[in-house]
Amino acid sequence: MTRYLLNMTLAAMVVVTLSGCSSLGKKAPANAAVENGGISNGEMNDIDAARSRGLKDGAGAAGANALNDPKSPLSTRIIYFDYDSTTIRSDFGPIVQAHASYLAAHPGTALTLEGHTDERGTPEYNLALGERRAMAVRRQLVLLGANAGQVKTVSYGKERPVAEGHDEASYGKNRRVELVYP
Amino acid sequence: MIRIAIVFLVLVVGIDATAQTASRGPLEIRITQGVEGALPVAIVPFEWGGAPLPEDIAQVIANDLTRSGSFTPMPRQDLPARPTDVTQINFKDWRAVGMDNLVIGKINATGEGEYTVEFRLLDVFSGKQLAGFQIPSHASNLRLTAHHISDIIYEALLKTKGAFSTRIAYVTVDRRGPKDSTYRLQIADADGYSARTILESTQPILSPAWSRDGNRLAYVSFEEKNSAIYVQDIRTGERRKVVSGIGINSSPAFSPDGQRLAVTRSLEGNPDIYVVDLSSGQQTRLTTDAGIDTEASWSPDGQTIIFTSDRGGAPQIYRVSPAGGPQQRVTFNAGDYNARASYAPDGKSLVMVHGGGGFHIAIFTLATGEFHVISQASLDESPSFAPNGSMIIYATMGGHGMELAATSVDGRIKQRLALQHGQVREPAWGPFRE
C-alpha cells in the first residue's frame, strides 16, 4: 500500500512535468531489477527531469491532484472483463469517461493500457486477447476525447496474474486492463 | 541466483533409482503411468576398472529405455550374471529369466578424462549381435554417450530412430508477486538432466522454438516492456532482435530450412501471420482478416503453415501457403477451442490444445479429421512432438503451478517433469542431434 501511494505521488509529479513531452522515453534496463524496488530508474529519471525543468504547467498540477484524489473516478486504474469478452462493462463506463476527459484536458499526458487475461487457453492466444481488451479501452478513450497518440497498449496475456487461484474468483481479477500513467 | 535442488525419482518402475545420485538437471522426473507389454531387456553394468565415473552409463540407458514406454529393463539386482564380454555370456541363463535382449559393455580410459565406451546389443535367442559400437567420449560427455547408445538400441529393436539424445527447451517462472518474477529460458537433455539457462529476465519469456539444425532458438521476450522476437545461437549465446515495434510481436516458428520465421504481429491492432526472411529482414503478410491469427507452425516439407484463428467465432486451426493466398479451415466443431497446433514429424497428424470443458492435448489425424485426446487434466497446453514422433511433451497444472508432462503417442506411458520450486512452462522438443 505504501508503495502504491508512493507510486501515485510519483505519478502525480511526473504528470506535472510531462506536459508537452509525452514521448519522453523510459529506459528499461535489460536486466531490470526495477520491478523489485518500487521506484524504477525511469521514474527516478523523470523526477530528475522535473527538478531540472521546473514546474511550468499550472493546469497540469491541478490535474495531477485529480489523478491522486482517491475520491475521483480517476483513482480507479483497473477495468475488469467478463470471461472471453472484450466488451467494457457498463459499470466501468464512468471510469473510462473520466480518464478520457483527463487525457483530453492534458494532451501532454501519456497512458499505457496493459491487457491481461485469465489462465485458460494458450499463452499466445491469450496475448492476442489481452491486446484486444487493451484496444477496446483505447478505442473508447479516443471516442470520448483522448488523442490516439496519448494512449499506448501492451498485452501481457496470461503472463502476469494478480491472483494465483484456479477459480472464477481469481480469474475475474486477472481478466483486466490496467491503466498505467507514467 | 537460486540453485534448485535436484532429485531423480522413478516411482513405478523397478529400476535402480538409488544408483542415480549425481543428478544434474533441475527437473524431477516421475513416471506416473507404466506399461504392460513392453519389451524385456537386460542391461549389464559396463566394465570399468578405474575410479568411479561421473555417470553410470548402464543406468542412464536403462532409464532412457524405461521412459520410452517400449522397454522394461530388468532391475539390476535381479540380473542372473554380469558378463562384460561376449565370451562370458551363457545365453541359456538369460532365456531362463525371460529376457529377449541383452546389452553389455566396457569403458576404457584413453587419456585424461578421455574414454572409449564399447557396447554390444545381443539377441538372447539366436545369440547374434544386433548392434555393437565403440564410441569415444569425455568425462563431461558420458551422459550424452549413454543417450546415443540408447538411441542405437531403440532403433535396432524398433526400427525407429531414438530421441534420447535430443534436448528440450522450456521456460521456468519463479513468481514472488504479480510484478516480481524471474523468467528463465532453459535447455536440458530430454531426460531433464544437464539443464542450462540461456536467458534470464524479470519480464516474461514465451514461446521458444527450435531451428531444425538445433543450433538456434527463437523466442519472445518482454525485456523492453513489450513483446519482441529474438533469435539466439545456443552455441555462442549470441542473439539478435528480429521483430519488434508497436503491438504484439510473438509466436515465432522457424521454416524447416531455417531461413525464415513465421511470426504474429499486430501492427494495425489486430494479430496477423507474417513470414520474415531472416537474412533480408523482409516481411510478408499472410493474413488480413479481422480475427485473431496466431500460433503459426510449418509443415515438415515447408509447403504449408497452419495457425490458430478465431475468424469463425472461436479459435480453430487454419492453413495457408507460406507464399500467401487463400486460407482453409482445418478443424471443425469438434470442441469449441482448437489452438496451438503443430505437425507430427511425418506430417500426417497435428497435436494441439483441444478445449471444451477443460483444455486437453489432442492428436488430430489430417486424413480422417479425427481427434484423439491424450491428456486428462484441465489446463494442458504447449504440446510438441519428439522428433521421432513417439512422445509428446506439454505443460500441465501441478501441485505448485505449471509443470511438464510427457506421454507416448499411444497414451501408454505418462511422465511428469517438475521443478522443486517454481513453475516450468512452454516446452519445445528439439530436433535430432547431428
What does this structure look like?
The complex is a heterodimer of chains A (182) and B (434). Chain A has two domains: 1-68, no CATH class; 73-182, 60s Ribosomal Protein L30, Chain: A. A four-stranded mixed beta sheet of chain A has the order 1-4-2-3. The radius of gyration of chain A is 16 Å and the shape is globular. By secondary structure, chain A is an alpha+beta fold. In chain A, α6 links the parallel β2 and β3 (151-157). In chain A, α1 packs antiparallel against α4 (58-68) and α5 crosses α6. The model of chain A is unreliable at 1-62 (pLDDT under 50). Chain A is 47% helix and 12% strand. The two termini of chain A are 18 Å apart. Chain A contains seven helices and four strands. With 434 residues, chain B is mostly beta strands. Chain B folds into two domains: 35-158, TolB, N-terminal domain (Rossmann fold), CATH 3.40.50.10070; 167-429, Neuraminidase. Chain B has a five-stranded antiparallel beta sheet, with no helix packed on it. Chain B has a five-stranded mixed beta sheet with strand order 3-2-4-5-6, covered by helices on one side. In chain B, β24 and β25 form a beta hairpin. In chain B, α1 (57-68) crosses α3. Chain B is globular and about 75 Å long. Chain B starts with 27 loop residues before the first strand and ends in a 5-residue tail after the last strand. Mean pLDDT of chain B is 89; it is low at 1-25. The chains are: A alpha+beta (182), B mainly beta (434). The interface between A and B is large, with 33 and 44 residues.
